[in-house]
Amino acid sequence: MLSTLRGSSMRSIARTAGRGRKEVLSHLRTALVGSSCAGCSGCASCLSAARAFSSAAAKKLQTGLAQEIQHEKDNYEKPKELSKVPAGWSFHDEAGNVNMRLEKELANGKTCKVEWQLVSPPMAYEEDMENEETPEQEPTEVELTVTVETKDKSEGLTYYCSASSMEGAKEGPKSSLAIGNVKTWSSVEERDNAASYNGPEFDDLDDRLQEAMEEYLAEIGVNEEVQEFISASAADKEQREYMRWMENLNRMVKA
């Protein structure tokens, strides 16, 4: 079966992700809510009061955003798993797009593509007490697909997988990959048809066949390094997109 993986940066990602987000959203709600007289349809007094309220709320929102942006920048640290792209792969990551992918050409002329999206990391437990054991948090799951296809895309197969990352009190960060099912196709139409057969449940296959299909994944390069890269990038992407969202919002509020 696929081996258990370890990463070292999920703790720092989890601790910084989400901090201050409730305050930012609270300021945003305040900026969007006005006040008016009972049954008012827009009298001059209410419009004037609303403008003053909106201006004050906007300033409050700007202050909250500035503080949170600075906090996130000060605490952001790129995971060491992302210091380099796994050998042989090209990494595609576009700002504002939740999707990411790794691509490579195989020796037999086929291409391999791994696709996944950002995820929100779980909040880490604060280790305040020396003698108390910190419970394991809920795992973070990254849904991903591994597609191998001919260059004309007329034939291929897709592994539907789930990478699970979790941080235990003693063992530290760890990840594992589970296969749900494997779809094959012999035409572009079959590949794109939502009604086409997605293959049997992977766990229902003979153990020897399961092992062989897992070994094939490793052979085409979906190894421990790639799995660590995917798990780390999924959480890191969410953190970077959150910071980008706040910066975009801050510019709009100032305009």
Offer a concise description of the structure.
The chain is α+β, with helices and mostly antiparallel strands.
Give a structural overview:
The protein is of the alpha+beta class. It folds into 2 domains: 11-76 and 245-254, no CATH class; 86-124 and 135-235, Roll (Mitochondrial Matrix Protein, Chain A). Helices cover 39% and strands 22% of the residues. The protein is built from 6 helices and 6 strands. It has helices at residues 10-16, 21-32, 44-75, 188-192, 207-219, 224-254; strands spanning 90-93, 99-105, 111-117, 140-149, 156-168, 172-185. The protein has a 6-stranded antiparallel β-sheet with strand order 1-2-3-4-5-6. Helix 2 (21-32) packs antiparallel against helix 3 (44-75) and helix 3 (44-75) packs antiparallel against helix 6 (224-254). The termini are far apart. Residues 1-9, 11-16 and 125-131 have low confidence and may be disordered.
